[in-house]
Amino acid sequence: MNVADSERVSSALEHLGYTHTSNAEDADVIVLNTCVVRQSAEDKAYGRLTSLLPIKRDRPEVVINLMGCLVGIKDHQPLRQRFPYVDVFSPPSDPAPLVEYLIQRDARSAEEAETARRFALMDGDLVLPRSSGGQVAGWIPVVYGCSHACAYCIIPYRRGVEVSRPPEEIYREARSLAAQGVKEITLLGQIVDRYGKDQPAYPTLAGLLRELSGIEGIERLRFLTSHPNWMTDELLECVAELPKVMPHIEVPNQSGDDDVLQAMKRGYTAEDYRRLVQKIRDRIPGVSIATDIIVGFPGETEAQFQNTYDLLAELKLDVVHLARYSPRAGTLSARSLEDNVPETEKWRRFRALELLQEAIVREIHATYLHTTVEVLFEDKVKKRWRGRTPTNKLVFVETETNLRGMVLPVKIIRTGPWSMLGELVS
Ligand code: SAH
Question: What share of the chain is helix, strand, coil (3-state, %, to 5)?
Answer without folding.
Answer: 40, 20, 40
